[in-house]
Amino acid sequence: MTVRTGRDILGIPGPTTIPDEVLGAMHRPAIQIYTGELVGITDSLLADLRTVMRTAGRTYIYASNGHGGWEAALTNVLSRGDTVLVLESGRFAHNWGEMARMLGVRIETLEGTWRDPVDPAKVEARLRADTGRTIKAVLVVQIDTASGVVNDIPAIRAAIDAAGHDALFLVDTIASLACMPFEMDAWRVDVCVAAAQKGLMTPPGLAFLGVSDKALAAHKAADLRTLYWDWTAREGALHYQKYCGTPPEHLLFGLRKALDMLLSEGLENAWKRHALLAEATRRAVSVWAQGGALEFNIRDASARSPSITTVLIGEAYSQPALLDYCLEKCNVTVGGGIGELKGKALRIAHMGYCNAPMLFGMLGAIDMGLKALDIPHGQGAVQAAVDYLAASVPA
Ligand SMILES: *Cc1c(COP(=O)(O)O)cnc(C)c1O
C-alpha cells in the first residue's frame, strides 16, 4: 500500500522545485539572439541580479552549473602560482579549492569540522600570520549544503579587515542567495558566485557572478583567464559575446519569470519566509531528537542554515530505509547525507519555491517513516512546526 499518487515533493538541496509559471515561461519557440527581445531580457536579468546580490558592481551570466561559476571566479582573478586560503565548513569550499589546485593555484586550508561554522578569529589569526601577503584570495561558502551550516560572512569580512589583509574575498552563495540576507557591497565581497537551481527557482544550467571593482582590477593581471569565462570578452559590443556563444535562451526565459516572482514577493520577504520555514523545521527536529536517534548536525543553533537542515541519524538505524519510505510511500524525496555524511544524515531542504504545506508534507512523511520503521523519536514534531508558524504568521 502507498499514499504516493499526487504532487511530487522534492526536498533535496538542489535542484529545487521549479514553479509551474517558470516552466510555462520556457515553453515557447526559440527566438533570434542578435537584437530585440532577448537583448532586453539579458539587460534586465543583469540588472535584477545586481538587485538580488545587493551590488552596484558588474554581473555575469554563464551557461553552466555552479561548478562553472567557481571556475569563472577563479580564472578571472588569479594567476598560476598564486595562493588562496580556503575556509572549510563542510564539502563545498573544499571542492572549490580543489578546483583551484588543478588550475595551478596553491591552496592553504583553514580546516574546520563538518559540525561548526568557520571561526572568524581563526581567519584573522591566519591572515595576520601571512606577513609576506602571499594569500591572494579567501574562499568561503555562505551556506554549506552538505553540513547545513551558515557562515557569518560579515564577521569574516571584519576578520580580514582586522588583520589588515588585502586578499580578495570570494563567496559562494549558491545555496543562500535569495534565501537569507546577503549584501555584496556592504560586506565588500569581491566575487559572489550563485547558480539558478536553488533559491532562484530556475532549472539547473545557469551560474551568476557579481564582481567588485577590486576584482576587476585583479582581473587585468590574472593569467588564468580563458575566453569562455573571461569578463573582458563578455563586455564586448555584441549580445552574443555576453554568453561567449549562443545564449541559453530558454533558461533565460525561465530565470526572467523566476526573478519577477521573487521581486514581486520582495527579496526581504523571501528571506523572512526561509527563516520561518527553517525554524519550523528545527522545531520538528528538536521534537524528533527527544527519541535519541536523531540530532542536529550543526551544534551551534545560531549557525543552522535557513535553506537546509542536516540531521544525523544514529548508526543503528537505516537512513536508506527512511529515505526509501518517504519516496516509495509518500512521493517525497528527502535529501541524504553526502561526503562524510553519506548514509548517516537526512538533508531537509526548505529552499527556493517552498511554502508551509510543502514543508509540512516533507516533515509529515519523515514522521510517518520514523513510526513505520520503529526509529525512536519524540511525538508531535509536525504539530510543533505548525504551532511555531501559527504563532509567527499572524492572521
Ligand atoms: C549546489 C552547490 C554547489 C554546486 O553547484 P552545481 O550547480 O551542482 O555545480 C556549490 N556550492 C554550494 C554551496 C552548493 O550548494
UniProtKB/TrEMBL annotation:
Cofactor(s) named in the record: pyridoxal 5'-phosphate
A Gene Ontology molecular function term of the record: alanine-glyoxylate transaminase activity
Annotated substrate binding sites: 347
Modification N6-(pyridoxal phosphate)lysine, positions: 198
Keywords: Pyridoxal phosphate, Pyruvate
Highest taxon of source: Bacteria
PANTHER family per record: ALANINE--GLYOXYLATE AMINOTRANSFERASE, AMINOTRANSFERASE CLASS V
Record family assignment: Belongs to the class-V pyridoxal-phosphate-dependent aminotransferase family.
The name this protein goes by in its record: Alanine-glyoxylate transaminase/serine-glyoxylate transaminase/serine-pyruvate transaminase
Source species of the chain: Tepidamorphus gemmatus
Taxonomic lineage from the root: Bacteria, Pseudomonadati, Pseudomonadota, Alphaproteobacteria, Hyphomicrobiales
